Amino acid sequence: MAEEAVTTLRAELRRFGRAEEAFALLETFLEVARPRLETAALDPRQLYLPEEMTDDRAVVRELIDAIGNEPAPQRRLLVVAERSYDLDDVQARWDFTRLAYCSDLATVWSQRRRTTYFEVTDKSRATYWLPHTLKIQYFDAIAAKGWAVPEDWLNAPSKTPKPWWKRF
């Protein structure tokens, strides 16, 4: 069976008028995609507060400070520092959406970690990779909440992934 076409959407904070718009779009994505998702995780080391963050700045600063006051996990060879968030918990989703943009690496995975749907890297790049059916549901949910889908997202082409044997 052929894999569903996937659309890549850029989602850096600086591309939105306000950081809160990026947070609202990520929150909406987590709600819509919840049945497909297993975990959301981020690297809790060296969290920083982006300049673009305005309304939630003080609350997010408290979250960062609280994580900074926790005992540091022991470093082990080939083990990634990771803090997971329960996507069924409303507060955990809220925390993740704000902290994802403060981390060196934040990821939303599908079940069994087979697919990455959203990722922030280097505290500056953010990307969604959405199968066509999920993209349609997501865009509908964004519009239903009164947010505008970014114009370049509407025009982003879907691409059919290469067969697994051609990916290596």
Annotate the secondary structure layout.
Layout: E1 6-10, H1 19-33, E2 37-42, H2 57-68, E3 83-85, H3 90-100, E4 105-110, E5 116-121, E6 125-131, H4 132-144, H5 151-154, E7 158-159
Antiparallel strand pairs: 1-6, 1-7, 2-3, 2-4, 4-5, 5-6
Shape: globular
Number of strands: 7
Element-by-element helix/strand order: EHEHEHEEEHHE
Quickly count the helices: 5
Major sheet summary line: 7 strands, antiparallel
Distance between the termini: 19 Å
Rounded mean pLDDT score: 86
Explain what this protein looks like in three dimensions:
- This protein has about 170 residues and is of the alpha+beta class.
- About 35% of the residues lie in helices and about 20% in strands.
- It has five helices and seven strands.
- It has helices spanning about 20-35, 55-70, 90-100, 130-145, 150-155, and strands spanning about 5-10, 35-40, 85, 105-110, 115-120, 125-130, 160.
- A seven-stranded antiparallel sheet has the order 3-2-4-5-6-1-7.
- The longest helix has 15 residues, at about 20-35.
- It is globular and about 45 Å long.
Summarize the structure.
The chain is of the alpha+beta class.
Distinctive features:
168 residues; alpha+beta
